[in-house]
Specification:
Helices cover about 45% and strands about 20% of the residues. By secondary structure, it is of the alpha+beta class.
Length: about 230
């Protein structure tokens, strides 16, 4: 899920990229070399996250048929800079595991069962004079007609507790997407889920009920703050 909030004068940058491997300072050595290696690690992590999303957009989520071929094709995507392709060439097995974990999440199972799902869905809406725009990774219609949003996350998390803590950083963007989707469709959003591909079966943190209303209100408050900020 990538996107931003903004009006003619104000904007909010997207959240930090997924798959941002921790780059720690090292003692000694050439600082320029360390900085270069750190930049490569971040670029590689971001590229892995992008490829995971590309594969999840194209693959049969029920069977994961041709997963090896699809991952290889996405790694070799000619739109990707040669330097970046070289960085991720050795990551195919890791990317396959991330895709498998995400596809095994209960949210994806429910989406497939519903028969009404949309992947990489562009979204744009004006809320309180502020534009909310981006792309929803996976959306499906629940049996009661409400809409359920999912965002695939490739952040490196070690366990469920860390995943829940990380999800907290994405509450405002998640609430903004729910707010915008309701504005565009006129239909209620019943849940916003973050699927963590680094954990088995795509451990999922879901906001619904009071938690969902809370993050939607956070997003609404943020749009109002932007709308009333003085123009610099």
């Amino acid at each position: 899920m990538n996107g931003h909030l903004g009006d003619d004068h104000q904007s909010v940058p997207p959240a930090e990229p997924d798959e941002s491997d921790l780059v720690r300072e090292t003692s000694g050595g050439d600082p320029t070399e360390d900085a270069s290696e750190g930049a490569d690690m971040r670029t590689r992590a971001q590229a892995r996250g992008t490829i995971v999303h590309q594969v999840l957009e194209r693959i049969d989520l029920g069977t994961l048929e041709n997963i090896v071929q699809l991952v290889a094709e996405c790694i070799e995507d000619k739109k990707r800079q040669p330097h970046i392709r070289d960085l991720v060439k050795g990551d195919a097995s890791r990317i396959i595991t991330l895709v498998q974990n995400a596809a095994r999440s209960p949210f994806v199972t429910n989406a497939i069962t519903s028969g009404r799902l949309w992947r990489e869905l562009p979204l744009g809406a004006s809320v309180d004079g502020v534009v909310i725009s981006g792309v929803i990774d996976l959306l499906h219609e629940a049996p009661d007609g409400t809409l359920a949003i999912a965002d695939f996350k490739t952040d490196v998390v070690g366990d469920e507790m860390e995943a829940r803590a990380t999800a907290g950083a994405y509450e405002a963007p998640g609430g903004a997407y729910a707010l915008a989707l309701e504005a565009v469709t006129g239909r209620p959003v019943s849940s916003v889920s973050f699927i963590f591909a680094h954990l088995d079966d795509g451990y999922t943190v879901t906001y619904q009920g009071d938690d969902l209303r809370r993050i939607i209100q956070v997003a609404r408050d943020r749009t109002r703050e932007l709308h009333h900020l003085p123009v610099m």
